[in-house]
């Protein structure tokens, strides 16, 4: 008896695409391998590979910029369409970063961080898409983050500033996370009226409280509904477990919270009419005595600080991790903050 051999059923392309996209979303290594299988799989997978671009080294940024300029399979419009999350540190040369921002101008989640050390960068002569000519050999000292350079270019235009203005003028992010290096280098009123900020709904600021409590201009953000600040009240480096030292640190912390931070946050919420949620994020601390959250609870219980319905305090478990605008940490924090605000409005007190 001859047993017939049935042909293997063909899997429809739309089903294959779903399977491949699912695998690519959950494993970047798999995504890179799948993109090399065939022409069709490359078309399916490359938008996923390039949906998140993180550039924290100048060498990485230069390779990415070379890919944009020399790719034979992807037009420039590919990157403006499919790069949804873009993270750039000040380790990236200023002009290179400006070009990358221009090519990835469709990104909705943008993170701009200052790096720890300024560096000299040789910048090659790019710029054809800006309809300008950038000098062939330029050494850029980048002591601040890209956003600070943009602020400087607005008030003190120079040749490099032209490229920054073109790049920032073409992008419209909705989520922005930033850490400025030298916030005293520009006016206390941030130029948040510029078109780059016009669509921002979620803003995360990682600078220390001494910086952002001196800033104004947040009322210029017409679509801002969510904002977060980090409250890190630095303890003295010479503290000990002596009772007197601990009480001194607690007293200073309470004074800063009561007289500087909370009044500023209250004014912010009053001036931003569409702001639904303000999160005061409390970083992980290793110090004796009360934590910031317990100090806030003590002050609230004793009616020494006002109750602000749209303000909530959230304790972070890591000192500096997952702070990109598109990170899972921020997505979870916004969701948690919205839930806490609803509860606070019902009970009319802070939930810590």
Order of helices and strands: HHHEHHEHEEEHHEEHEHEHEH
Number of helices: 12
Q: What strand order characterises the main sheet?
A: 1-2-3-6-7-8-9-10
Poorly predicted parts:
116-143, 235-242
Structure classification: alpha/beta
Assign a percent range to the helix content: 40-55%
Rg is 24 Å
Describe the protein in words:
The chain is α/β, with parallel strands linked by helices. 42% of the residues lie in helices and 13% in strands. It is built from twelve helices and ten strands. The strands form two sheets. It has an eight-stranded parallel β-sheet. Strands 4-5 form a two-stranded antiparallel sheet. The longest helix is centred in the C-terminal third of the chain and has 29 residues, at 243-271. It is globular, with a radius of gyration of 24 Å. The termini are far apart. Residues 116-143 and 235-242 have low confidence and may be disordered.
Layout of helices and strands, plus pairs?
Blueprint: H1 13-26, H2 28-34, H3 39-49, E1 52-55, H4 58-70, H5 76-82, E2 85-89, H6 94-103, E3 109-113, E4 120-123, E5 138-141, H7 146-155, H8 159-170, E6 175-179, E7 202-205, H9 209-212, E8 226-230, H10 243-271, E9 277-282, H11 292-301, E10 311-315, H12 328-347
Parallel strand pairs: 1-2, 2-3, 3-6, 6-7, 7-8, 8-9, 9-10
Antiparallel strand pairs: 4-5
Helix pairs in contact: 1-2, 1-3, 2-3, 4-6, 6-8, 7-8, 10-11
């Amino acid at each position: 008896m001859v047993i017939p051999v049935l042909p293997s059923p063909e899997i429809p392309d739309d089903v294959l695409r779903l399977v491949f996209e699912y695998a690519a979303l959950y494993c970047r290594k798999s995504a890179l391998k799948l993109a090399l299988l065939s022409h069709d799989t490359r078309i399916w997978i490359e938008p996923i590979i390039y949906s998140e671009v993180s550039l924290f080294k100048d060498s990485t940024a230069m390779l990415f910029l070379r890919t944009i300029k020399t790719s034979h399979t992807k037009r420039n419009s590919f990157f403006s369409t499919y790069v949804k999350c873009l993270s750039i540190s000040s380790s990236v040369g200023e002009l290179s970063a400006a070009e990358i921002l221009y090519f990835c101008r469709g990104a909705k989640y943008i993170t701009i961080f200052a790096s720890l050390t300024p560096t000299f960068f040789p910048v090659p002569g790019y710029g054809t898409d800006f309809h300008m000519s950038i000098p062939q050999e330029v050494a850029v000292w980048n002591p601040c983050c890209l956003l600070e350079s943009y602020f400087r270019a607005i008030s003190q235009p120079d040749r490099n500033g032209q490229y920054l203005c073109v790049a920032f003028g073409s992008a419209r992010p909705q989520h922005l996370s930033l850490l400025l290096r030298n916030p005293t280098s520009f006016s206390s009123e941030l130029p948040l009226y510029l078109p780059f900020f016009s669509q921002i709904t979620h803003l995360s600021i990682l600078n220390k409280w001494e910086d952002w409590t001196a800033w104004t201009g947040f009322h210029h953000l017409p679509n801002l509904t969510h904002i977060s600040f980090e409250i890190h009240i630095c303890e003295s480096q010479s503290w000990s477990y002596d009772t007197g030292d601990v009480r001194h640190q607690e007293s200073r912390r309470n004074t800063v919270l009561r007289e500087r931070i909370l009044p500023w946050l209250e004014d912010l919420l009053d001036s931003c009419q569409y702001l639904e949620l303000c999160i005061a994020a409390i970083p992980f601390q290793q110090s004796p005595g009360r934590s910031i959250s317990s100090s806030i609870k003590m002050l609230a219980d004793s009616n020494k600080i006002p109750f602000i319905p749209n303000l909530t305090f959230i304790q972070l478990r890591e000192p500096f991790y997952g702070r990109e605008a598109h990170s899972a940490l921020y997505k979870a924090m916004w969701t948690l903050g919205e839930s806490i605000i609803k509860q606070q409005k019902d009970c009319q007190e802070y939930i810590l």
